[in-house]
Amino acid sequence: MTPFTTTTLEQALTEKLALNFSKTPDEATDQDMMRACALVLRDVMAIRGVETRKRTNREQKKRVHYLSMEFLMGRSLMKNAYNLDILPQLKEALGNLGFRAGDIFEAEPDAALGNGGLGRLAACYLDSMATLDIPATGYSICYELGLFKQKIVEGQQVELPDHWKDLGVSWLVPKPGEAQEVRFGGTLREFWDNGHLHTVNENATTVLAVPCDMKIAGYGTEHVNTLRLWEPRATSPMDMSLFSRGEYLKAAEEEAMAESIAKVLYPDDSHMEGKSLRLKQQYFFVSATIQSITTRHMELYHTLKNFHEKNVIQINDTHPALVIPELMRILIDDAGMDWDEAWSITTQSVAYTNHTVLAEALERWPQVLMEHRLPRIWQIIKEISCRWERRIEEYYHDPGKTQYMAIVWGGEVRMANLCIAGSMAVNGVSALHTDILRNSVFRDACQMEPWKFKNVTNGIDHRRWLSEINPGLDSLIRDLTGGDAYLSDAMALQKLDSYADDRTVLDRLGEIKRQNKEAFARHAKKTRGVVLDPNSIFDVQVKRLHEYKRQLLNVLHIIALYQRLQDDPNAITQPHTFLFGAKAAPGYEVAKRIIHLINSLADHIDHDPICKDKLQVVFLENYRVSLAEMLMPASEVSQQISTAGKEASGTGNMKFMMNGALTIGTLDGANVEMNEVLGDENMFLFGLHANEVEELKRKGYVPQRIYTQDETLRRCLDALRTGFRDGVAYEDLYQRLLFGTGGSAADEYLLLADFASYCEAEARVAAAYGDVDRWNRMSLHNIARSGIFAADRSVKEYAEHIWHVPHR
Ligand code: 26V
Known about the structure:
Blueprint: H1 6-21, H2 30-58, E1 63-67, E2 71-74, H3 77-83, H4 87-96, H5 101-107, E3 111-113, H6 117-131, E4 136-141, E5 149-153, E6 156-160, H7 165-168, E7 172-174, E8 180-184, E9 187-193, E10 196-202, E11 205-217, E12 224-234, H8 240-244, H9 248-261, H10 276-301, H11 307-310, E13 311-316, H12 323-334, H13 339-346, E14 350-353, E15 364-366, H14 367-373, H15 375-396, H16 399-405, E16 408-409, E17 412-414, H17 415-422, E18 425-428, H18 431-441, H19 443-448, E19 453-455, H20 462-468, H21 471-481, H22 485-488, H23 503-528, E20 537-542, H24 551-567, E21 576-581, H25 589-606, E22 615-619, H26 625-631, E23 637-640, H27 652-658, E24 662-665, H28 671-678, E25 684-685, H29 690-699, H30 703-709, H31 711-722, H32 731-738, H33 751-770, H34 772-784, H35 791-803
Parallel strand pairs: 1-4, 1-13, 4-12, 13-14, 14-18, 18-19, 20-21, 20-23, 21-22, 23-24, 24-25
Antiparallel strand pairs: 2-3, 5-6, 7-11, 8-11, 9-10, 11-12, 15-17, 16-17
């Protein structure tokens, strides 16, 4: 049922403005109005949330708990209005009150509580879980600062703090009544009572965890779920009574801990660092979450013996892995169970998703850190580890395998192995990735417990990433597929395939893309002062900056193009704009150098008259969800060029495909499955396959040989070495590719090995673009076959094969 008409919405907004800001619509700023909108929609969702919870309790439904250190939510106003089915009414009401809806939507800051793919995936899954009527809660930390804002100053990245809460809090409702206490450090005391050994944690530093809840409305349903963000507070303010008891220092310590714990989201998504604060963050949100889940379970069922029948805990990578020992702790210490019963319940409740095979990103914590910070958890981990090793020994009788699969080894705790031991399911995020987990990274564990290992290929929220952000395409799809059925069933997009030879449809598709490009160009002009040429190909690589994603390969090809243009000013007939967007982890020096390089090259090309109307490079500052939302509909070429075997899935690739961009890519991650539905003829594949990458590395890869043999490449690399117009030389990157630096192998990610093949694929892209009909047809096929990459499909697979919960 629609909660509002335009008129009642106008009244509600006017009332909210008066109540909260003492303003009339005439007096209100865009920001006031944005917050009023949030408050009005929040109320509707709150009421539906109560109904959803009552129904879930009454029917004793199994609940899904999705734990993630990151939820990259972006903006929520348009999304919530869309899912509540009042977007047109809201736009009209805003207009009637004297506002431009677009300005109000833009006034909302992105909630950037995540780094990249892993966090955005969690946000998309929240939408699908609500849409599919699955009772689910997301849990994370209410970071004070989201991911840093990126400024480019003289070509280089500068990081600025993101105070998202100033305006973003409107969606959050604090629930102090449901606060939990989380304990760190202290000492353990054991005693026997009634034939039972009890353990108590004394003199701990206690931090209060207060939930701040954000409601998540589903599409086409009244089902509303919750994203619960934990906010740390000191248990009590510093007071004199503590001082007199000599506990002043303890109180000060607790205040400091509460202050620091949720200050900032770690901005690194590529390198594991054994930072004590990050471990504290993990335990803080895990402990609060498990306590909150078990408390509610006790209220409903008065026992934890059936915990696994009524709850499933999905962990997004290993970051929340401490749920395993924490749940054990509660079942043993608080509920009085014996080890075996507690272990049986835990291992039937927890499921683990792996998101990377990069060794440097797999979490390993120094044992001493665990020992001091989390003494009871450490005891339990040791016991889990001993029992796990015994099982491996009994199965393999091979010390090598025991060492490889061990949880505690060499003074470290290996979180992935803990997750494998303590979960009922372990899944990869694309077919290829799961293959690599099964056959290489987790091979031994998989042989021992093959039933645990599953694949769930990632998906994206197609309502947000197509319908909401690309209204032109949305209306074409509605016209061709008979209405809005595709919103609930993304496979309905397939119907578009039958228009492959319909000229009017192809022309309309081309026209929609053209309009979106012009809109993006206007936006870039207004916000950045950059002039883009809508007649050129919009060729886009946007994602975190990492060497394995090979932004540098893209750059090398652009240098080659530029040099061809120097030799022959008529070499390029089709104007080409290369757009980049990427944040580098603040401590990742090489990544920052690559950003600098892109900007140096962009500047150089800008100043060369030969390139005018032919070649342009643009680095888009501060890439984030809201920028992606404007860019995807305007993109024509999607760069998905990671070294095969390294990108677990990719989800940007799916967003581009759904908006009709054509992919130039390697057979990596979900690109493999894209290729299966598209065929070679509807994308531009190049490069070594994952097995060939392995083989080449095994045989010994010598990039200098390629440098010597390939003249085009040699010229590119030499140009890189001396640098461009701004006088900055990139000798370091040159050295890294040819000889290796900082302990890494020469050209670790095989850019040189794939260079020729990549250039050849780029040439095919340019040629295909020249044939407008063919291009639009390919684009149509991409949209038509993108349905399998809807998050609804992924979440249904989790529900059916891992969670065992019903769905709509
Ligand atoms: C890793 C680490 C390493 C330890 C320190 C902190 C930290 C924070 C975040 C991460 C996440 C890295 C894993 C990740 O983002 N994987 C991406 O997951 C996407 C969703 O499954 C997938 O599409 C991408 O291919 C994959 O790179």
